[in-house]
Amino acid sequence: xxxxxxxxxxxxxxxxxxxxxxxxxxxxxxxxxxxxxxxxxxxxxxxxxxxxxxxxxxxxxxxxxxxxxxxxxxxxxxxxxxxxxxxxxxxxxxxxxxxxxxxxxxxxxxxxxxxxxxxxxxxxxxxxxxxxxxxxxxxxxxxxxxxxxxxxxxxxxxxxxxxxxxxxxxxxxxxxxxxxxxxxxxxxxxxxxxxxxxxxxxxxxxxxxxxxxxxxxxxxxxxxxxxxxxxxxxxxxxxxxxxxxxxxxxxx
Length: 252
Hints:
Mean pLDDT: 94
CATH class of the largest domain: Alpha Beta
Helix content: 40-55%
CATH architecture of the largest domain: Alpha-Beta Complex
Strand content: 15-25%
Number of strands: 9
Low-confidence stretches: none
Number of domains: 2
Order of helices and strands: EEHEHHEEHEEHHEHEHHHH
């Protein structure tokens, strides 16, 4: 599927959702938000897709909301509410999906672009990276779960410093805090991301979905509850044809 502001490409078991407003560093207009949400839902619902990659065309993943749009509305708060509603639906789709979602961050993410990247299951980036909170610099307070994800990753004190000073998170710190899994050279960024996505896609879909669900549920569960969940999923997966087929390969 292609559109003016979003491109969706399928490469084997991997679906790419590409934000396509490079002239404004993929800033989210209401229209881009709607198209991106639709493309994301289509990719997640595609039975042939095992992994979804989100990225941006050009020199940025996304710099967040197009702040010029609310300024043209007689009721800016109403416009912000509409944009945030769309943005939050995308975050929920990613976290509730049974497929892994990778954010491929090319150089720069800010505002909702940062929130969207942090919401994804795995993040990879080019070797020169900047992540910006950005909201406070224009008198806003964040959306897309950024105030949920950021302190969980870097700690509350550092998150507050990042949010209130506008200081960027660069590649060394993103690596230190485990915010980004891998860094790839810019010249091979798309190819390296595709190769990683294909490795993940090789995991049987039911197992991948169960692992994702357990990882997130463990954040709010006590150990004994989590152990019971692990055991239930493990025994369920042990009865699947995928498991039996893979085990036979090791027995040869």
